[in-house]
Amino acid sequence: MKKLTMIMLLAAMLLPAMAQEVEVTSLQRLLDGVEGPAYYPVLNTAGDRLLFSSENGALKLYDFTANVTTVVTRDYVAGNDACFGGDGKIYFVTQEVGEDHLIYRTGHSFDAASNQAVSLTEPFHGAMRAVPATRGGALRAPGRNYASSADIGSAAWTEENRVYVTVGGENRVFSPVDSWAGYLWASLSPDGKRVAFFAAGKGIVIIDLRGQMLAMLGNYEMPCWYDNDYLVAQNAKDDGHQFTSSQLLLLKADGTFQTELTKPSSMAMQPTCGGGKIVYTTIDGLLYEMQIKIHQ
Q: Cα separation of 130 and 156, whole Å?
């Protein structure tokens, strides 16, 4: 009887996950015939504006409503070095090789309303990253940090094997899992209550604002929050020289459910989410917009 009861309890626990279904309701190419290869897409929270990098590293902004593309900068912007701030501005980092053959990085902001870019830092040799915040944006570099205001709200970012979380003006630093190669791709959930990041060798980790680990979602890359309960991530495989497959997965933040949104052969990668949209690119730089419906 105890064995039967245990089986029934396990079945009841598994039933919600088994009954859950995800439907792709639309899938369309973006900027087909208008732009060349595009990489590292970034949606804003509303999902009505999209940043992406061209093949030569120039940063561009696409407005879904106006159907207009604007060049933010023609200078080289490395992947993941641009973001939307909570103040509506775009924060990004350009890089160039100096006469001493060293790489120098400069932080900037861009105001789409005035179509003006402003340099926020002097050229700097060393790591620098653009960090989105709920009330603005920041640029993080050793000894040269910039914030758009005294109170940028909440933010999350990684440096080496540490994840930083800013809440109510307080900076918190966590290392919840061991990772010999460090952390990447930290982001706050839309409600600001959890942080997702990637730990090399371990995969996607979900923590609360006190650094307590809530879930580990698998060894996938580039997680982005679809909503407060789900994330989209890249599942890429390689042979040590080049990608052999890449697909998008939908992952439940508590680790109880996952499903594929694209097939491994799709070579889909670099997902971004906002306003109920999922935008991604392919290995050939083709941008796609996907919309889904989650049936509970």
A: 11
